[in-house]
Input
Amino acid sequence: MPDTLRGKAAIVGIGELKPERTRPGRDAMSLLAEAAYLAIQDAGLAKSDVDGLIVDEGMLGGGSGYCAKMAEHMGIFPTWATGCDAQGAAAVVMALQAAAYVNAGLANFVLCGMSAAIDPGARRRPPAAGTETATSEFQAPFGPTVAANGWYAMIAQRHEALYGTTVEKRAKIAVDLRYNANHNPLAYFHDTPLTVEDVVNSRIVADPLHLLECVMPCAGGCAFVVTRAEIARSLRHPPAYILGGGLGVPRNNLAHLGEITIAPVGRAAKKAFAMSGYAPSDVQVMEIYDSFTITVICELEDSGFCPKGEGGDWIQEHDLTFKGDRPLDTHGGQLSCGQASTAGGCAQVTEAVRQIRRDGGAHQVPGPADLVYVTGSGGYFSQQSAMVLGSAAAL
Amino acid sequence: MAIANEYKKPLPTPSAVSRPFWDAAKEHRLVYQRCRVCGTRVFYPRDVCPGPECFGIGTLDWVESSGKGWVYAHTISYQPAHPGFADDVPYVLAIIELDEGWRMSSNVVNVDPRDVRIGMRVAVVWDDVTEEFSLPKFQPEQ
Output
């Protein structure tokens, strides 16, 4: 094993906007700037301390020069800036990129962030035909799916056929996460409880997925700051150390290759756990990317928390609430917080940091939170990331 | 100028590489690519071989498929993202595995959507949607 990043970098500042259905008058740069300012202040830094920047390529709606545009917009002057094109896997990937950069001498404080604007009054781009890429040419003519619903529905359908993972079983994810959200004031569904019956009786969007098994698109933003471990120790919050990480990229398009119920996070998790020196059984808190109920189930299986095919039963046997024996998505997940595009996955990283700091307030896990497993998921099982974060006690 | 096309759904935008697929489709022939070096079956169309051990460039030949296969995965779509499909819901989106061992996205038609099952045998049926394009769809094998 080469000399790895284990314990050499930490997340020292976090910023997160509450997801809302719309943010009138706010564009993506504005929302990212607000989340970034919160993260920089949370770290106890000045804007002028930030010398590294990683921005989500998807965020600014195409075009080039997004790092420079974003730096200019915020009035920061980095000496190192790159993009990250990992869709929903991006937040974890950015943290790992940043950890590498600060340990390679390219920057001291790397700001990572993403946002999503939904502004009813904004200028709209003309809709693209959507059949102009090598793969969309062979998808769109047959009836495109709403967001990724159709693709995840096919994964769920197959998982149900192979392993009996019915909606009644899958619903537990949504219900336990909602309990967590009911204790998180930053969650969109903070005030709305949820039962298994509610999920099962919600309308079918793409068979077999029901509406309440799917994330709701929101506007929002999320950001964090990464620095080297020795600098992190001198800052105001207990550092959340990056202990290991990885990314798995099996394909872009689900239609063409491989067993589709296998979550790409498997290879990422293997790498992340090996680097960290820990195993899934050591993990105390899980922040698992949750675009749909089935996403979480497949990720749990392929990350090594239970054998393949047993995820549906495993979640029945465990209490996934923040008070439970297997706390999962302690902030409520994207299913209950709302999904502000890639910033939704970023909230899984910032929540992990919050738990490690024991700063979760009403949704802080009562037990230890020194070792947290975080995942990200992009496209439709196109790329998934995994990261092990820990407190000083886990170093 | 021809009369404005009444077909309201997205149509393929063929590239130089994918054009032979749509030309064959117009003749109701379902084709895919096979690498003459390593034998890998390839879909969507490319001009480089994605075979795990292969560095082939320009080594993919067009081959005709039997048009027969099975439903690898499917969903019933109740909510179309594109307005052109509004009158079609509920309809079946599926990944079809052809008997030659390659997969494509399509629809399963001429069947009650609730009767579609993973593993169901299907055969290609052509939907001549415009003068230029015929789409390969699948129906239960007779």
Remarks:
- Chain B has a mean pLDDT of 94.
- Residues 14-64 of chain B form one domain.
